[in-house]
Amino acid sequence: MRQSQPSQLYLTIMLGLLLVPVAVRAQQQSTPAAPAKPADSPAATPAAPDPPSAIAPAPGNPANDQDQIDKRILGVLPNYRTAPKSAEATPLTARQKFAIAAKDSFDWPVYLVSGAFAALYQLENQNPSFGQGMKGYAKRYVTSYGDQTIGNMMTEAIWPTMLREDPRYFRQGTGSVWSRMLYAASRVVITRTDAGGRRFNFSEWLGNGSTAALGNLYYPQSRAASDVWQRTYTQVATDAFSQELKEFWPDVKRHLKHHDNGVSAADSTSQH
């Protein structure tokens, strides 16, 4: 989900504001209640422990984390760079970084998203030199898709390979809602290196800056330094809000699934 226009940022923020309350409710419902304290009785017999096969994996269990990773948010937005926290110990090769960037750039929903934003930019008449009609739409579609592809390659493959940084978003998955929101937003500033350390996310800023600068080649009316800076910080902000979606989408999806199962069970009961 990568466009350099402000409209992309606004829509991402709106989507995040709609999903986070659902995630909050899902997290509250998933918090287990404290077990009732058994009455003191000399005749009380401690319950036998559950067999190992019946014990559900803990939230931090790698297998459980992996099950939560959805490769498409809302079934449309590519999400290949998201990984569970348990994957932090395994660095990516250069080839793997380019593979993630390619999947995020050439997955079929990307073409639909680019087309949708090209239509939005046409309605707003952004870059008036492109004109209107099918010719204007075609130019906006190509530049929209170009922003997305170049941005993915710069921030997920080229700069991370040169700087030996890990382009993945490691989902926290546990903790309070506010701590998770802060963690997700901070990943545009803090990243993990291939050696396992943490430092400033140079790939995010240099990658988006490079993409914004290359945009001067096909945005004839937006070539000033201020325009390049606006495209850069708009995309960084968009990435920050996109990571909020990456962090909370599994909670939202699980909540919706449980809700649907509850409705189905209620309907089945009422029919008997």
Report on this structure.
With 272 residues, this protein is mainly α. The chain has one domain. It has eight helices and seven strands; from the N terminus they run ααβββαααββαββαα. It has helices at 6-30, 62-68, 94-106, 108-124, 133-163, 177-186, 202-214, 225-271; strands spanning 72-73, 77-78, 82-84, 165-166, 169-171, 190-193, 198-200. The strands form three sheets. Strands 4-6-7 form a three-stranded antiparallel sheet. α6 (177-186) packs antiparallel against α8 (225-271). The protein is globular. The N and C termini lie far apart (46 Å). 35% of the residues are buried. Residues 41-45 and 48-63 have low confidence and may be disordered.
Outline:
This protein is mainly alpha-helical and 272 residues long. Helices cover 60% and strands 7% of the residues. The strands form three sheets. Strands 4-6-7 form a three-stranded antiparallel β-sheet. It has a two-stranded antiparallel ribbon with strand order 1-2.
What key attributes describe this structure?
single chain, mainly alpha, 7 strands, 3-stranded antiparallel β-sheet, 272 residues
Helix and strand arrangement:
Elements: H1 6-30, H2 62-68, E1 72-73, E2 77-78, E3 82-84, H3 94-106, H4 108-124, H5 133-163, E4 165-166, E5 169-171, H6 177-186, E6 190-193, E7 198-200, H7 202-214, H8 225-271
Parallel strand pairs: 3-5
Antiparallel strand pairs: 1-2, 4-6, 6-7
Helix pairs in contact: 1-8, 3-5, 4-5, 5-7, 6-8, 7-8
User: What share of the residues lie within helices?
Assistant: 55-70%
Report the portion of residues in β strands.
Answer: 5-15%
Q: Describe the global form.
A: globular
Structural class: mainly alpha
The biggest sheet, with number of strands, parallel, antiparallel or mixed sense and barrel status, is: 3 strands, antiparallel
